[in-house]
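### Sample
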Amino acid sequence: MRFAPDREQQDMADTLRDLLADADTAKIARAWAGGETAAWWQVWRELAEVGVTGLTVPQEHGGLELGAVELALCLEQFGYAALPGPLVESLAFLPRLLPGSSWLAELAEGRAIGTAIVAGHLPHALDADQAGAVFRCDGDGVRRLGGIRLQQHESFDPARRLFSVEHTTAEPVEADFDSAFDRGVLGCAAYLFGLGRRLLDISTEYVKQRHQFGRPVGEFQAVKHHLANVLLKLEFVRPLIRGACLSIDGPRGSRDVSAAKIAAGEAAQTAARTALQVHGAIGYTAEHDLHLWLTKATALRTSWGTPAWHRRRVATALSTDPTPIGT
């Protein structure tokens, strides 16, 4: 197995990271939370120009039809930048759910985004007021909702704008739900991994600048230990995500994406807790940009399946197939 990205994959990730760094995603996230969406849509159009919006869309609908490795690399960069919006839904879930849908052409061209309600996991539609298509996935199958009326709900992460959806029509569509759900879980894990990496970088930079007793707090052994623990957890996440990318279409794919999601959520939570500790009181203020990463890490830890749900899934899989995860 090859766990490291090749040169083209790494170049793609680097290009995306530079694009997002130039976009001031912290400012975009604050505007998005307040309902000001113009700056976000400008970034989405720029992403379309480099092919990211059609990353996993079939070529017949104008997409690149790339695989899970490229998907995870891109969502990791989105997490690093804390870019809001239904990115997991639009880039990971829906292209796999609806491979034959002509609507995917709008997505690939950067003219639309989509969102979904998934029974048992996503009770509200993320950013449904901006979505060109809203889908509901439950025991009755997959349906595209029409004639919708939205009611926004309070969210722990203000940039994750959650809506309940009333509708007058529900058109059944052919879909591959199980495979699409695993893509969504993988995408969420990769996004969390990116969040954790950024939280570690923010914390490391801060402890170099903050002084106590005449020296940077980063020189204190206890602070070094906390940051080293975060780095260790993140380094364990990386091969789990890469392994899940390679096994996702096989018989152990569901187990491996769940393992990656568990580890990514725990690592991001540890990174968030450590970031709060090293920043002190300023880390609790909503005015500090750190807040954008903290709230998102907490919210996504239980999105696309709670840790307990994924642990049960892994345990059930191991009870029938004890092959080590990632092999």
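The two ends are 8 Å apart (CA to CA). This sample (Acyl-CoA dehydrogenase) is used throughout the tutorial notebook.
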